[in-house]
Design brief:
The chain is of the alpha+beta class and 739 residues long. The chain has six domains: 3-55, Helix Hairpins; 86-313, D-amino Acid Aminotransferase, Chain A, domain 1, CATH 3.30.470; 320-419, Beta Barrel (OB fold (Dihydrolipoamide Acetyltransferase, E2P)); 431-514, DNA polymerase, domain 1, CATH 1.10.150.20; 520-642; 655-737, BRCT domain (Rossmann fold, 3-Layer(aba) Sandwich). 38% of the residues lie in helices and 18% in strands. The chain has 26 helices and 24 strands. The strands form seven sheets. It has a five-stranded mixed sheet. A five-stranded antiparallel sheet has the order 14-13-12-16-17. A hairpin with a 2-residue loop joins strand 13 (336-347) and strand 14. Helix 21 (617-628) packs across helix 22. The radius of gyration is 29 Å and the shape is globular.
Length: 739
């Protein structure tokens, strides 16, 4: 299509995708399937790739995040971004209202009462309806610019339409919904990663990340509750402002009350204390503010807080109960999680019978014992947590708990040995065939991003494992059509046969999947910490799957990552060393210097391979740990017997041999792609990666080639400045197919 047609289609797709984002994330009323949404999203991506000059910085495609940045810029707030003074009793609420009456000379003062969201305060500046910047509160005068991170929040409109004024600064809170936070913590727990203490900590930590692609993976949301700079619009009251938010489809705080006397305000605060337990986000208080904008201006502010508002803080609800036992759950990645079995107790509106203890380190740190009286609260109003032990009530027969001894060193589900991987706090079952893990591993193994075996959806995968057809993921290759045709994926009461057509589809695509590239296999195995990018990078370092356990390169990456982490986390200048003895300090210093020398040596050895950070020390350790484990070795042996040998399609030979390889101009080289090309950008990227090259999103001094189509723009200019070689599609084809 011509540029004008492309502009109109980009605008149409962008508007449609934003509408569906609103329906899905804010209204919970999706109109289309995920697959239809993905197709629409992909169409927009392709159009923007073909017409980069028409791509908006607020396009829905920016929700996935961009390349990492070096650090956050600072930006001044045109209107100061103040905090709110806290009060902790109803008596203080009376005092606040008396001050309003005295200063305004009115006996009835309309006030808004709304939940105090336990999130991170942020300011969104929209200029002519387009999101220009997102800035944290900082010191109230200036804050960090986190625009790229905020653009990944799918429920937040990036454009406001024709009703938006010249400048509209919306202030609100970024938070993590309780259920999404609980799910994320559960996944981190299962992977042996440190869990977040509460949704606010998780939100604050996420917004500090310099890689917006990582931010996009976290379940953030936004709620508006105020405004700052305005140009081309004004409001007489907060009630009017809230109505305007609804017109713009910006998510607003709720529920709210409008009361004009102190008794009504206190009544609303009490009602909110009951309702807040059902909200999707954590709230620790009620915000009370004068509704009239003119009255707010008359009351003014102190150096840190407005005089027209206050926050009533609810005391955290904690209850004591008895811990009767500790049981073990085996998660989808094999992580063993200790769970406190409690005397039922009512906390924050619901009865709590169980609470996660996360891992053995957490149990030891809190000195939790079976029989103890413990204090329970709900982290983020949803996750039951053991806050502390009431040692004064500890019975004489309280029993210490040791997870490894409790399970006798074996997985309670499959009786296989358990391990504690280096650098992790959790114990894990190393048997990938463990029933607790098998169905979830099978789902990933057959997924489109992995081996792409058609016909094995979630229900089929679960039933295949549940009914013993697949005990190990490799069993999928030995299924026959006659086995599957009459396979019941329903129940005994309501049977539902898979059928010959679906059975044939599974068998045929499984046969093709045997030849899938190594990177697909490595991702499909579901090895913790080994995602798509790490799998692709690992496959660049070996010729086939059987070389991985003995790969010297991957071993060096593992060692460098772990030693580098030790040096960073244990600096001698740290305040932690203040209590060290002279002998211990010297020993620590010697070890640190030894590690630094080894890290330097490993860095030099790895330099020719240009290993991407996507395959770091943790991912390498996890990869090698699996393939060197008993179950990993057993899988490799079975693959040999089955004649399956996944090979790398992007193998990088040894540096000394790279010049002799057929694609010597591509192997190990870094490419950047820009401009309008004759083929989809992802297809070209795959060709380069298959030939042993790497593709980056930005130009730097380390870039070898810029593949430029029509209208290369700023990337072409930067490449010329840095002396980066600029090539055409024809040049690339010659490089890929040179003999």
């Amino acid at each position: 299509m011509n540029p004008e047609e492309a502009r109109l289609e980009i605008a149409r797709l962008s508007a449609e995708l934003e509408r569906h984002n609103q329906l899905y994330y804010e209204n919970a009323q999706p109109e289309i399937s995920d697959a239809d949404y993905d197709r629409m999203f992909r169409d927009l991506e392709l159009l923007e790739a073909a017409h980069p000059d028409l791509a908006s910085p607020n396009s829905p495609t920016k929700r996935v995040g961009g390349k990492p940045i070096d650090g956050f810029e600072q930006r001044e707030h045109v209107v100061r971004m103040l905090s709110i003074d806290d009060v902790f009793s109803e008596g203080e609420v009376h005092d606040f209202f008396k001050r309003m009456v005295k200063n305004l000379g009115e006996t009835k003062i309309p006030m808004i009462i709304e939940p105090k969201i336990d999130g991170v305060a942020v300011s969104m500046i929209y200029r002519n309806g387009e999101l220009e910047a997102a800035v944290t509160r900082g010191d109230g005068t200036r804050g960090d610019v986190i625009t790229e991170n905020v653009r990944t929040i799918r429920g937040l409109p990036l454009t406001l339409g024709d009703k938006a004024p010249e400048v509209l600064e919306i202030r609100g809170e970024i938070y993590m919904p309780n259920e999404a936070f609980a799910k994320m913590n559960e996944e981190r727990d299962e992977e042996g990663l440190q869990t977040f203490a509460n949704p606010r900590n998780a939100t604050a930590g996420t917004l500090k990340l310099l890689d917006s692609r990582e931010v996009a993976k976290r379940p953030l949301a936004f709620i508006a509750h105020g405004f700052g700079q305005l140009e081309g619009i004004s409001f007489d009251s907060f009630s009017e402002f809230r109505s305007y938010l609804e017109e713009l489809k910006l998510p607003a705080n709720h529920p709210v009350w409008l009361e004009d006397n102190v008794d009504g305000v206190i009544k609303a605060i009490r009602e909110l204390d009951i309702k807040r337990h059902d909200l999707e986000y954590g709230t620790d208080g009620a915000v009370v503010k004068v509704d009239s904008i003119a009255a707010q201006a008359q009351l003014g502010a102190t150096s840190r807080a407005p005089r027209w508002s206050m926050a009533f803080k609810y005391p955290p609800e904690q209850k004591e109960t008895v811990l009767h036992d500790i049981t073990i759950q085996v998660g989808r990645t094999g992580t063993l999680t200790p769970v406190a079995e409690l005397e039922p107790v009512l906390v924050s509106g619901t009865t709590v019978r169980r609470a996660t203890l996360h891992n053995q380190d957490e149990i030891d740190r809190k000195d939790v014992r079976i029989g103890d009286t413990v204090v329970i609260e709900k982290a983020g109003e949803i996750i039951p947590a053991v806050v502390k032990v009431v040692t004064a009530k500890r019975p004489a027969d309280a029993k210490p708990f040791n997870l490894y001894e409790y399970v006798d060193g074996k997985c309670p589900r499959c009786n296989s040995p358990i391990i504690r991987p280096e650098g992790f706090v959790a114990w894990k079952c190393e048997n990938f065939s463990c029933p607790a893990q098998a169905s979830n591993r099978l789902k990933q193994f057959v997924s489109r991003k992995a081996l792409d075996i058609d016909g094995v959806g979630n229900i089929v995968a679960e039933k295949l494992v549940e009914r013993g057809k697949v005990k190990d993921i490799l069993d999928i290759f030995e299924l026959h059509v006659d086995q599957l045709a009459d396979f019941n994926i329903g129940t005994a009461v309501e049977p539902r046969m898979l059928g010959e057509k679906n059975g044939t589809k599974i068998v045929e695509t499984a046969r093709r999947a045997r030849e899938a590239p190594l990177a697909k296999w490595l991702y499909g195995l579901g090895i913790p910490q080994v995602g798509e990018s790490a799998a692709l990078e690992a496959s660049r370092l070996v010729e086939d799957i059987f070389q991985i356990p003995d790969s010297e390169i991957i071993e060096m990456v593992r060692e460098k990552g772990l030693k580098d982490a030790w040096v960073k986390e244990n600096p001698l200048r740290s305040a932690k060393t203040a209590d060290l003895s002279v002998e211990e300090f010297e020993a620590r210093k010697t070890k640190s210097e030894e590690y630094k020398r080894r890290v330097k040596e490993l860095t030099e050895k790895l330099a020719p391979y240009e290993v991407s950070p996507e395959l770091g020390g943790v991912a390498s350790a996890s990869l090698l740990g699996y393939f060197r484990s008993e179950s990993g070795q057993a899988m490799l042996e079975r693959m040999k017997q089955m004649g399956i040998c996944p090979k790398s399609t992007n193998y990088l030979p040894e540096p000394s041999k790279a010049a002799d390889s057929g694609a010597s101009q591509v192997v190990g080289k870094t490419f950047v792609i820009t401009g309008t090309l004759t083929a989809p950008r992802n297809d070209i990227k795959a060709k380069i990666q298959d030939a042993g090259g790497k593709v980056s999103g930005s130009i730097s001094s380390k870039t070898d080639f810029l593949l430029a189509g029509e209208g290369g723009g700023s990337k072409r200019d930067k490449a010329e400045t840095l002396g980066v070689t600029i090539i055409s599609e024809e040049d690339l084809e010659q490089m890929l197919f040179q003999e």
